[in-house]
Amino acid sequence: MNKVVKIGLIGLGTVGSGVAHLLKHNHEEILRKTGIDLKLAIACDIRADEIGEKNSAITYTKDWKDVIADPEITIVIELIGGTEPAYTIITEALRAGKNVVTANKKLLAEKGRSIFETAAASDKTIGFEASVGGGIPCIRALNEGLAGNRILSISGILNGTTNYILTRMEEENKSFNDALRDAQEKGFAEADPAFDIEGYDAAHKICVISTLAYGRWIDFSAISIQGITQISPLDIRFAKEMGYAIKLLGISKIAGDEIDIRVHPAMIHQSHPLASVHNENNAITINGDMTGAVTLHGKGAGSFPTASAVASDIIQIARGNISLPETSAFSEAKYLSSERRITRYYMRLRTKDRPGILAKIAGAFGKHGVSIASVIQKESNSEFVPLLFMTHEAVENNILAAIDEINGFEFVDGKATLIPIEDSFANR
Ligand code: HSE
Questions:
Q1: pLDDT in tens, 23-36
Q2: Of all atoms in ligand 1, which is nearest to the CA of residue 190?
Q3: How many domains is the chain built from?
Q4: At 42, phi and psi to the nearest 5?
Q5: What is the CATH number of the domain that holds 395?
Q6: Nearest Cα residue to atom 7 of ligand 1
Q7: Are 84 and 21 part of one and the same domain?
Q8: Where is the domain boundary, 267, 298, 329?
Q9: Pocket flag, ligand 1, residue 201 (CB < 6 Å)
Q10: Rounded-to-integer distance, Cα 86 and Cα 128, Å
Q11: Which tens digits make up the pLDDT trace of 152-208?
Q12: Which atom, in ligand 1's list, is nearest to the CA of 158?
């Protein structure tokens, strides 16, 4: 016997319209495979008058309260994003006895604790597969396929827009702004592109998945975040010459009872699996103590891939298959300090070209205990020349102190660009 499940959808933007399309287009396929007859009964959007289909079985409204008040709706999908009114909608829906599905990584990263507590108190569940990795089922992989592991580290390309931009800059020499506009037109970017390019979106995602993986409450504000706005085509070209690619990575690693969690552009060797992740694709490597590194790769942004993740949660809830994380056993995260963070670095700066400059820079590195692995100076006719350094492993604090000193030299133009080199992070 087929089971009818009525759904209320709030937000008909890029992902919401993808979900509406999927529920219509794949309705028979889902029914055939699962015996669940998913019916989108009510859809809410402030533009309901313009986008609501005439003569449709779906009721269109501008007021999200209509969705929650409908007694036939058992699953509410929140796809408006942002903190408010999304937080109120989700908590009201849970309290009204609805299960919830959301793609809202910002909200979960910042207020996940309170939302999980409300869900537990209401004896309802919340699906959030679409909040991390777009169409990649990484939350399910973590909760189910890898459930028998202690998770040691997670790292990945978690933002489609920035990966798209870096790919276009590398392959087509496109300017940053052209590549961003292109990504926006394709529906990958956040409403505020600063969330993508400044690294916040990737940070929200590494926060959500790491909280779950390690069973520790991670304070979003404790995450060190750096976006891609400092990356120039020159860095990408130099990286390539040296056998590396530049990717924006979200990284979290367990270090004793502490967590090292951060988002930044990183140099990875071209032979590394993440180096071949292009365009809007995401890839997530989850390193379990039993499995070793497991990498999932697929479309990390866009209407249909993200709708696929939303549909997966809807189906699992309809089957009674999603349970809340055991948050009562979660502890407060402690964070690895920068005195204990050790990495290799790439540094690019522009200096005047005259005797003694290299020695002064090398002296600053040496004074702070940073050992240089290689150095390249490019010849140029202009006043300033590019100078590139790769260091051996160094303590983050020491490299920052060296850079501070180097930035202060009168022969340096602007500020040095610093990019960590992640050689073997999946196995650390
Ligand atoms: N703006 C996000 C990205 C969309 O580019 O990955 C999905 O979260």
A1: 999 999 999 999 99
A2: 1
A3: 3
A4: -145, 135
A5: 3.30.70.260
A6: 301
A7: yes
A8: 298
A9: yes
A10: 14
A11: 999 999 999 999 999 999 999 888 899 999 988 988 888 788 999 999 999 999 999
A12: 6
From 131, 164, 191, the end of a domain falls on 131
Mark whether 396 and 268 lie in a shared domain: no
156 CB within 6 A, ligand 1 = no
Give CA–CA dist 359/202, Å, rounded. 38
What is the whole-number distance in angstroms between the Cα of residue 220 and the centre of ligand 1? 18
Q: Verify that 22 and 85 share a domain, yes or no.
A: yes
Mean pLDDT score, 49-58: 85
Give me the CATH number covering residue 294.
3.30.360.10
Nearest residue CA, atom 4 of ligand 1? 301
Q: Domain limits at 45?
A: 3-131
Query: Is 205 annotated in the active site?
Result: yes
Give tens-digit pLDDT for 381-407: 888 999 999 999 999 999 999 999 999
Catalytic option among 98, 205, 247, 299: 205
| Distance (Å, whole) CA 82 – CA 106 | 6
Residue 290, pLDDT score: 98
Distance CA 277, CA 263 (A): 17
Cα–Cα separations (whole angstroms), residue 126 to 37, 91, 348? 20, 10, 45
